[in-house]
Write a structure and sequence with these properties.
Layout lengths: L12 E10 L4 E9 L5 E7 L13 H9 L3 E5 L11 H16 L5 E11 L1 H11 L24 E4 L5 H10 L3 H10 L5 H4 L2 H6 L9 E6 L7 H13 L4 E6 L12 H24 L1
Parallel strand pairs: 3-4, 3-5, 5-6, 6-7, 7-8
Antiparallel strand pairs: 1-2, 2-4
């Protein structure tokens, strides 16, 4: 039986890296944050940001550690970058990652039954696509023969500054004359029209069949990269489509405010833990 989750719990952690997946260009790795206790612990997959073009599994260490110490098996994975393979490669990695972690969680004292996903910035975009289209044949393209009966559905999604509308974000970069940021979008969405196909906001507006797990969006109030109106529109559309979406604006905060210690970073850590707790309690009551 899974351990009852209490966001106020404090566990010691065992942290190590394992091979996640080999690609023709490099080996993708996963970092495991395992609470040291009786368990089994709820399980969370973390997807890194980096504008689809940079960073790796270590991008979100403070958040991963904070959540894991409360009694969650957290696993952060590398994703292929746009310079290696464009969209939908990173979503394929994430989809594979969900199935792989469901298979591996018990080995690390985790409970895979209500696995959640955490995503930051471009990782939030990947998390949204993953959650909304868990059975999409494009995203399921990487086979996992030893666990062929496992699917990529997730119980909930927690995000920080997700790129909920990549095209609107591109137009914002254009407005700000940020050529480097614009080029990163071009690298990822190649051919360019895929920026509309792989666009969470537009997917909802097109009324495509989607899954709508509960979602948390944490947004910086003065973020001029992914601006607050993008998240407000997405949250409203998600709710209108039948999903639950909690949007929390962190006043005075920029795009990556959680990169630095401080009260607003601490607030984000506590908010993610509280969100996980509510989802797990709701799932337990429904069982």
């Amino acid at each position: 039986m899974a351990a009852t989750y209490n966001p106020a719990n404090k566990y010691e952690l065992k942290i190590w890296d394992v091979e996640f997946r080999r690609t023709p260009k490099r080996t993708l790795m996963a970092r495991i944050y395992q609470p040291q206790g009786a368990g089994p612990f709820p399980t969370l997959l973390d997807l890194h940001g980096g504008a689809w073009n940079g960073k790796d599994r270590l991008a979100n260490v403070p958040m991963d550690e904070a959540v894991a110490k409360s009694g969650v098996l957290v696993v952060a994975i590398d994703l292929r970058l746009a310079t290696e393979d464009p969209y939908p490669a990173s979503v394929q990695d994430a989809n594979y990652g969900v199935r792989w972690l469901k298979m591996k969680a018990k080995e690390w004292n985790g409970d895979p039954s209500n696995l959640g996903v955490l995503g930051s910035s471009s990782g939030g975009h990947v998390a949204q696509l993953l959650a909304m289209r868990p059975r999409d044949s494009r995203y399921n393209a990487i086979a996992l023969p030893e666990a062929s009966g496992i699917d990529a559905t997730v119980a909930y999604v927690a995000t920080r500054s997700p790129i909920s509308d990549p095209h609107a974000r591109f137009l914002q970069a254009q407005k700000m004359k940020r050529e480097e940021m614009m080029q990163k979008s071009r690298n990822y969405f190649n051919p360019w029209e895929l920026i509309h196909e792989g666009n969470p906001q537009e997917i909802l507006e097109r009324k495509e069949p989607v899954s709508l797990p509960p979602m948390l969006i944490m947004q910086g109030g003065i973020d001029d990269n992914v601006i607050p109106p993008i998240q407000e529109k997405f949250a409203a559309t998600y709710r209108a489509s039948g999903g639950e979406c909690q949007l929390e604006v962190f006043e005075g905060c920029v795009h990556e405010w959680i990169a630095k210690p401080g009260p607003q970073t601490d607030r984000a850590h506590e908010m993610v833990k509280a969100f996980i707790g509510r989802q797990l309690n709701a799932l337990r009551r429904a069982a």
